[in-house]
Amino acid sequence: MRQATTLLEVPTERQGLREITREVAGWAGGQGMREGLLTLFCRHTSASLLVQENAAPDARADLERYFARIAPEGGDYAHDDEGPDDMPAHLRAALTAVQLAIPLIDGRLALGTWQGIYLFEHRRRPHRRTIALHLLGD
Amino acid sequence: MRQATTLLEVPTERQGLREITREVAGWAGGQGMREGLLTLFCRHTSASLLVQENAAPDARADLERYFARIAPEGGDYAHDDEGPDDMPAHLRAALTAVQLAIPLIDGRLALGTWQGIYLFEHRRRPHRRTIALHLLGD
Amino acid sequence: MRQATTLLEVPTERQGLREITREVAGWAGGQGMREGLLTLFCRHTSASLLVQENAAPDARADLERYFARIAPEGGDYAHDDEGPDDMPAHLRAALTAVQLAIPLIDGRLALGTWQGIYLFEHRRRPHRRTIALHLLGD
Known about the structure:
By secondary structure, chain A is α+β, with helices and mostly antiparallel strands.
């Protein structure tokens, strides 16, 4: 068994879900393994990871609106050093995932038919985000 | 170190939590390893995974009611192709886990005394769900 | 490739976020690996794990207040065997993470600059919590 790691850089242009399935599957596929485990780790506290519906843009828009509603800007937050979207970003990150692990079976990530991997940008301004990728297997 | 993978099929009869600890621990135990890491990956965007209280049925019912309340049917969703339980299912999945990893120590999953592994079905109709299992260890 | 496991005991004094980055990184660093994957698994259903902002105490206080608000004591819960903070503890655990996995790159956990690892104690009384740690790598 062997392992490989990399840091994937993901530029984000706006708040919301940005699909990264292709970049992630491309790197994993390039390591020449048939069976293994891929781990993604988001190195930020104001962006997060989500596996969600990859077919319906409506579902993505509803997801973005939902998290904007349950962790809203304008709440009574003590922490607002970086503006009104600062603390809601941490809350939305806490409610979703900082890390994902996906088995590799027969040379392919075991994603379901309708699953895509998304970076969820919670800040309003564009950012360069970094996701640590770790793959181990044979 | 070696690895094993399988696809576990889980039929669900209704919306809510369905315990799968026995099926998961049974497969993992059958691989003859003493120390390792088990990963579960739910291949769906309208069902998810949860480790929760395995003793009190009341706690499970409260959990189900809670998620029905914070991600309700009848919200103002753009995405409702498959009915009123469609978009809430995606939201409830996003709030819980698509993936779990549990260490194997001394030949047993390192679950706490009161922890059970659950598939959380978010759709009203029965479904056949698939969970990818990956175990590596010695 | 090789692996190591341990059970990390974490005493909690009060409800809220308790940083465990130093203990976790210390154990992982002591295994002498350069590249690998560290998994943390919280063996409880009324405490959980969170990677969050490690610099601003205000952000931690806002996080604690937020989860107290969206999964409040005094809700209409069937399960209250252990008091009013019992069921909200399960809900807050379900909304955050029971498990985290962090790649090890160049001998260091791939945490971002502002990321700390926290045990999130959801009960009011002090507890002794146990986190299973699993590291594999080279």
